[in-house]
Specification:
- The complex is a heterodimer of chains A (115) and B (108).
- Chain A has 115 residues and is mainly β.
- Chain A is built from no helices and 11 strands.
- In chain A, a hairpin with a 2-residue loop joins strand 5 and strand 6.
- The radius of gyration of chain A is 14 Å and the shape is globular.
- The model of chain A has no long low-confidence stretch (mean pLDDT 89).
- In chain B, a hairpin with a 3-residue loop joins strand 9 and strand 10.
- In chain B, 39% of the residues are buried.
- In chain B, strands 2, 4, 5, 9, 10 and 11 form a 6-stranded mixed sheet that branches. In chain B, strands 1-3-8-7-6 form a 5-stranded antiparallel sheet, with no helix packed on it.
- Chain B has 108 residues and is mostly beta strands.
- The chains are: A mainly beta (115), B mainly beta (108).
């Protein structure tokens, strides 16, 4: 248990569906992240939120829409996805500070399959 | 764009063997971290190295940060089946960038 909880753990959706992934942390961290993990590829940073404001969007397609209503919750809204979007989506949080102190705490991920 | 390359991509060894995996980049990082990810779980931090040339030991695991802070290695002594997993390195400057990982299998 890392203190970061993601739901659902597994999701199968059609290309015309709309769904949302949820991430929750009660570690008191100020930064939250969405990563995409595909087979044989590096973890891809998708979005970064710091103090509930989006500070980075790594050219992610608009069919992925993040939302951070407060420092404890992060959502990823999905619509009209493609099969190549199937992957493990990981949420992480951290408390930015000195470089040696920055540890990312990850959730267990949502395994997304787009059919 | 910071790019971390990890090698080997896959490694399968017998219990009791030693191994080293590598993380290389052309970029300098203020710190570098190693994570282990087990199936169905998110990555979990093993160690953070900050100083060039730094060596850290965690039981049978030895981590080294290159002098120029561009690369790192992870050495495991007398590997055990419980060491099986995906080992990820992550370089940190303003945010964390991950390598693709080394998938280690230790056979009993």
């Amino acid at each position: 248990e890392t203190g970061v909880t993601q739901t659902p753990r597994h999701l199968v959706m059609g290309m015309t569906n709309k769904k949302s992934l949820k991430c929750e942390q009660h570690l008191g961290h100020n930064a939250m992240y969405w990563y995409k993990q595909s087979a044989k590829k590096p973890l891809e940073l998708m979005f970064v939120y710091s103090l509930e404001e989006r500070v980075e969007n790594n050219s992610v397609p608009s069919r992925f829409s993040p939302e951070c209503p407060n420092s404890s919750h992060l959502f990823l809204h999905l619509h009209t996805l493609q099969p190549e979007d199937s992957a493990l989506y990981l949420c992480a949080s951290s408390q930015p500070g000195g470089a040696g102190d920055t540890e990312a705490f990850f959730g267990q991920g949502t395994r997304l399959t787009v059919v | 764009t910071q790019l971390l390359e990890q090698s080997p991509q896959f490694l399968s060894i017998q219990e009791g063997e030693n191994l080293t995996v590598y993380c290389n980049s052309s970029s300098v990082f203020s710190s570098l971290q190693w994570y282990r990810q087990e199936p169905g779980e998110g990555p979990v931090l093993l160690v953070t190295v900050v100083t060039g040339g730094e060596v850290k030991k965690l039981k049978r695991l030895t981590f080294q940060f290159g002098d120029a802070r561009k690369d790192s290695s992870l050495h495991i002594t007398a590997a055990q089946p419980g060491d099986t997993g995906l080992y990820l390195c992550a370089g940190y400057n303003n945010d964390m960038r991950f390598g693709a990982g080394t998938r280690l299998t230790v056979k009993p």
